[in-house]
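Researcher: Sit down with what I've pasted below and flag anything odd:
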Amino acid sequence: MAVASGTLYKVSVNTGTPAVPVWTVVGVQTDATYTRTGINADTANKDDGGNPSRIMVGSDWQLQFDALLVEDDVGFVALETAYNAKDVVQVQIDRGTTTETGDGVIADITESGPNREAATVSVTIDAAGSMTRA
């Protein structure tokens, strides 16, 4: 069993077209978190004896990553452009040996400029469809 390296775990954005994608890594990343959440429906009934009962009826995902702020970084500019236009972005998570690709909407871009430290940016992308593993 090979353990995935966090160093290889990177987020890219499509700076090409949907038909001919060009995957561009966003900035100088320092952290990335990919969260998958089940959407559950309550199926509890009187015969369950008061115990919870649920079925999964859908799924959702969210991608959050942090990077050093490089204002002219091609990937970062693509995200800012999509955010300002309220466009859907194609994103890719690269684990080093496997990738997942999907459409998302930018929920949050937060920049931080602490004294005597490098400026950083934190980006959150919410699902606008499912992820596909390659």
Notes: The two ends are 19 Å apart (CA to CA). The mean pLDDT is 93. The first strand starts at residue 10 and ends at 14.
